[in-house]
């Protein structure tokens, strides 16, 4: 019955998102991006720029790597790229606010932009651009499969579509199983997420509307970021919230974990004294970023936070084999689970 419900849920999601796309003819499609802006573009673009960091991993995993001209330069700081996707070394490194002339010179068909002002500027200069934001409005609930559905409508490739649909069902199944794992919870536990993709300290987090807020809510936790109006709340605000749990992700997670444990202001919090500080795996991207490893992220966090026993190591091995054709060793999988690079060091030290 649960499997049937999952399939029906997937069908509903596909139907509900299909209205965002209108096929003009066999060669054009009209698409509305995450912020409601609509453009008509040629189908099956051959040269794409992934300036929005949430797009690169999925395009590679779904079999569209040969369409990627380049991506936001910080993506290439990840030492796992050489192991998982060696061809990335041949791609162009784009600035966050890349000059429109670069895209024209490189004959880019489509840019996935991270923010509206960037996308608007590119369109003003005749460059096809769609905004794929890190945040949903008002929450991420309705945007979980937004980009995946967009991929299926832009590219006519049955193998790509098959991979997208498989991944979507895996995400649905993971959320259902992990949400059920907190049925016996007496009360929500307060959780503070430290965003470690940049070394901005313990106080750098994601707010309401982010994928992380959505995910930890589904896991049964009271997410601190929804109470803050900024991604940089003060130490005093965090201490007042007094989280039961800290969870740290990103390239700098191991450095930030040590900072948290030794900070004079935080050290008296129960979460720190009880060592309720946990890390998020890191692979082609940090697992808490919407990506091909999103199902594994739910299972892993459920194991850590809700005492379940999903075989996450096997999931990592099979996922990277299926989507990237990479045979990871047990040691490499262990490093991923510890948020480290392929040589077992802090990722920030392997760049």
Q: How would you briefly describe this protein structure?
A:
The protein has 351 residues and is an alpha/beta fold.
Query: What's the name of the CATH homologous superfamily of the largest domain?
Result: Nitrogenase molybdenum iron protein domain
Count of helical segments?
15
Principal-axes geometry comes out as globular
- Distance from N terminus to C terminus (CA atoms, Å) equals 47 Å
Structural class, please? alpha/beta
Give an overview in words:
With 351 residues, the chain is α/β, with parallel strands linked by helices. It folds into two domains: 2-167, Nitrogenase molybdenum iron protein domain (Rossmann fold); 184-350, 3-Layer(aba) Sandwich (Rossmann fold). The protein has helices at residues 2-18, 56-61, 80-84, 100-105, 116-124, 146-154, 158-180, 211-218, 235-241, 253-262, 270-273, 294-306, 312-324, 330-337, 347-350; strands spanning 21-23, 28-32, 38-42, 48-50, 68-72, 92-94, 110-113, 129-131, 189-195, 221-223, 245-249, 277-279. A five-stranded parallel sheet has the order 6-5-4-7-8. A four-stranded parallel sheet has the order 10-9-11-12. A three-stranded antiparallel sheet has the order 1-2-3, with helices on one face. Helix 5 links the parallel strand 7 (110-113) and strand 8 (129-131). Helix 7 runs parallel beside helix 12 (294-306). It is globular and about 60 Å long.
Any key phrases for this structure?
single chain; 351 residues; alpha/beta; Rossmann fold; 12 strands; 40% helix; globular
């Amino acid at each position: 019955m649960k499997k049937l419900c999952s399939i029906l849920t997937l069908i509903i999601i596909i139907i509900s998102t299909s209205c965002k796309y209108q096929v003009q003819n066999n060669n054009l499609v009209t698409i509305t991006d995450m912020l409601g802006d609509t453009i008509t573009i040629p189908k099956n673009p051959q040269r794409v720029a992934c300036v929005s960091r949430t797009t690169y991993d999925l395009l590679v995993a779904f079999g569209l790597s040969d369409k990627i001209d380049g991506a936001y330069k910080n993506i290439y700081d990840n030492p796992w790229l050489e192991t998982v996707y060696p061809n990335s070394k041949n791609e162009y490194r784009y600035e966050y606010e890349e000059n429109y002339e670069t895209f024209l010179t490189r004959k880019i068909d489509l840019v996935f932009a991270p923010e509206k002002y960037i996308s608007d500027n590119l369109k003003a200069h005749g460059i096809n651009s769609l905004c794929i934001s890190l945040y949903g409005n008002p929450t991420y609930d309705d945007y979980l499969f937004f980009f995946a559905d967009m991929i299926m409508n832009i590219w006519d490739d049955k193998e790509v579509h098959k991979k997208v649909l498989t991944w979507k069902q895996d995400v649905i199944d993971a959320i259902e199983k992990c949400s059920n794992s907190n049925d016996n919870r007496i009360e929500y536990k307060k959780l503070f997420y430290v965003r470690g993709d940049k070394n901005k300290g313990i106080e750098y987090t994601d707010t309401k509307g982010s994928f992380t807020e959505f995910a930890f809510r589904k896991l049964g936790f009271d997410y601190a970021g929804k109470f803050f109006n900024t991604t940089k709340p003060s130490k005093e605000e965090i201490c007042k919230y007094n989280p039961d749990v800290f969870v740290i992700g990103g390239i700098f997670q191991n450095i930030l974990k040590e900072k948290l444990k030794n900070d004079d202001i935080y050290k008296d919090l129960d979460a720190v004294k009880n060592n309720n500080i946990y890390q998020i795996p890191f692979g082609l991207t940090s697992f808490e970023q919407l990506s091909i490893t999103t199902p594994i992220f739910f299972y892993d966090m459920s194991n850590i936070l809700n005492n379940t026993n999903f075989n996450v190591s096997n999931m990592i091995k099979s996922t990277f084999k299926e989507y990237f054709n990479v045979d990871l060793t047990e040691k490499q999988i262990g490093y991923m689970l510890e948020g480290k690079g392929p040589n077992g060091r802090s990722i920030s030290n392997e760049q």
